[in-house]
Amino acid sequence: MPLNLANTVIAFLKDHPDEKFTARQIAEWVFQTFPEECQNKKAKSKSQSVRSDDDLIRQIQSEIGPRMMDPKKAAQIKTTEGRPRKYYFTGKSDEDEVVQAESEARQSSDASSAQPAKTQEADLYPVIASWLRAEHGLYAMRIDEKRSSNQRGPNGNKWLYPDLVGMEDLSAEWDREIKDCVKQYADKKTRLWSFEVKLLINRSNVREAYFQAVSNSSWASFGYLVAGEIQGKDTMQELRMLFALHGIGVIQLEPDEISESQIIIPARERPEIDWNTCNRLATENSDFMEFIRRVRQFYQTGDPRASDWEK
Question: Which of 310, 291, 300, 309 minimizes the C-alpha distance to 189?
Answer without folding.
Answer: 300
